[in-house]
Amino acid sequence: MAVWWQALLLLCWALNCVRSSAPAPLVQRNKYNNSFRLARSTRTRVQQLQKKYTEQQLGNKHFEDRGRQLRELPSLSTDFYSWLTLTDWDRLHAAFWDMQAYWNMLERKRKQLERQHIGGQALHSTLPQSIKHIQLDLRDLMSQVSNQMSYMRSSWMKPTSPTARAPLSPENRSQTLWDSRVEGYVILRDLDLYLTKLARDFLLLASKTGNPPVS
């Protein structure tokens, strides 16, 4: 009996060693895989919300305005070589602050819609709640990116601590009701495009650990 217990304890110890010594690249690949999937699923929800928003707020779910820009949103234009040669730390750091910028803009728009609801301009609208769901997805993504950066800080790479990016203050301009509604469309339009770029970032990061995520 004593021999049996000794064998069982030895087996448990060996299994624990296997679990605790899982290769770091495999752990990171799984994290990037999860982030990749969440970015894609969030983009799908953003696209669904954009159609609902343009239909309810602009009267046409096929509304398009590719020319209007908001300076508070991150730039979507990227030089391919510069994007490809970013360090992993810089890529994650930029992703965190870009998502924070979109979260802030969605928060402002959500509160505007809630005030419209209270004022009777958008009765029974589910838009504020739908925006809140997108914000929760972005928070989850930001948390995952933050954890990935914490892992890098604890590794041998020891990257330089980043300087926090100061948020841009909202533009001080008078807006018509139409302009305010189009602003919401622009936020969702650019967030859709940004999440495509973010998913590519996670694909690239995963490829450096071995195999990229499987969509």
Automatic annotation (TrEMBL):
Q: Which Pfam families does its entry note?
A: CNTF
Identify the InterPro entries for this entry. 4_helix_cytokine-like_core (IPR009079), Ciliary_neurotrophic_fac_CNTF (IPR000151), PRF/CT (IPR010681)
List the coiled-coil residues. Answer: none
Q: Which GO terms describe its molecular function?
A: ciliary neurotrophic factor receptor binding; cytokine activity
Q: Which UniProt keywords apply?
A: Cytokine, Secreted, Signal
* Top-level lineage group: Eukaryota
Which segment of the chain is annotated as a signal peptide? 1-20
Provide the GO biological process annotations: ciliary neurotrophic factor-mediated signaling pathway; negative regulation of neuron apoptotic process
Which compartments is it annotated to reside in? Secreted
Q: Which GO terms describe its cellular component?
A: extracellular space
For this protein, the record's PANTHER family field holds: PTHR21353, PTHR21353:SF9
Which family does the UniProt entry place this protein in? Belongs to the IL-6 superfamily.
Protein name, per record? Uncharacterized protein
- Write the lineage as a comma-separated list: Eukaryota, Metazoa, Chordata, Craniata, Vertebrata
